Amino acid sequence: MLSKIEIRQQFGQQSNWKGGLVVTRDLIFLGMALGIAYYWGQHWWLTILLIWFIGMIQFAMGESLLHEASHGNLFKTKKMNVWVGNLIAYAILTTLDEWRTEHQTHHGYLLSEQDHLTQDYIDYRLYKGIHPFITWILQPLLGWVGFHWLRSELGGLFKHKGVLLFYAILLVFCGLTNSFSFLFWYWIIPLIWAYSSILYWSEITDHYLAKAATRSNTSFFWNFMFHNGGYHWVHHEYPYIPWYLLKEADELLSPTDSPMDRTKGWWEMYQIMLEDYNSKHLV
Question: Which segments cross the bilayer (predicted)?
C-alpha cells in the first residue's frame, strides 16, 4: 500500500496542456452539435437528440471541468483555473467561488445537515417511499427536475455580475444574428432539461444508498463523456488527483469489498434503488 506522500507524488500532477486539450474537446463537441442543429435541426427527432447531447456537454463542462477547476486540478496554473472556471460557471448561472464553497462543504460535511446534498435528496423526494420509476425516470424526463433546478439557480443570473454580463453578451449576439430561437432550443432547453437531469442522476449515483457514503460509477461511456467523473470514491479520498489520473488511481486505491458502492451505469443504479424499494415495501 502506498503512503500518502507516495500517492501525492504519483497522482497529484496537474497539467496545463491536458487542461487545454480537454476544454478544447468539449468546445469541439459543442460546435459540432450546434452546426448539425443549424443545418438539420428541422427534424424533431434530431432536435431531441441534440438537446440531450448538448446537455451532456454542458454537464461535462459545467460540472466535471468546473469541479476540476474548483480543486485547482484543471490546470497547473492557478490563474487558468480561475479564469476558465469562472467562464464555465457563468454559463450555468454561478461563479467559481460560489461553486467551490458549496463543494468544499460537501467534502468536509458529507451527507450532514451542512451538505447541500442532504437537502437535495429531500427535495428529490427520495425518502418519501415513492417508486424509483417515478423518482429515477419520470421526474427528470418529464421536466420536474428541470423546474426544481431552474427555481433554485435562476437567482444567479441577477446575483452575479459575471453571469449577467455573460448572458447579456450572448443576448446581444443573438439579437444581431436573429438567433434567439436557436439559443432557446439549443442552449436554454438543454440546460433546463438535459443538464439538470444528468446532474440529478449524478448526485444520486454518487452517494445515495452507498454503504461507504460514496459510490463510484465505472461506466465507460459516463467516464469518457464526463472526464472520469464517475470515479467518485477515489476523488473524495484524494481530491488533489486530476481527472486524467482518476481511473488509474481508482484501480490501485479503491476498496473492492462493497459491490453496492460501485455501479456500471444508469440502469444498474436504478436496480439498486429498486432493490431498496422492494425490500421496504414488498412483503
Answer: 21-40, 46-66, 133-150, 162-178
The answer to whether 231 and 243 are in contact (CB under 8 A) is no
Q: Over range 215-242, report the average pLDDT.
A: 96
Give the global pTM.
0.95
Query: C-alpha 58: how far from its chain's center?
Result: 8
Q: What is the DSSP letter of 138?
A: I
CA distance to 157, 168, 175, per residue, from 165 (Å): 9, 5, 15
How many Å apart are CA 62 and CA 195, to the nearest integer? Answer: 9
pLDDT tier at 3 (50, 70, 90 boundaries)? confident
The number of C-alpha atoms within 13 Å of 280 and in the hemisphere containing its C-beta is 12
Rounded Cα gap, residues 43 and 48, in angstroms: 9
Question: What pLDDT digit, counting tens, does each position of 125-158 carry?
Answer: 999 999 999 999 999 999 999 999 999 888 777 8
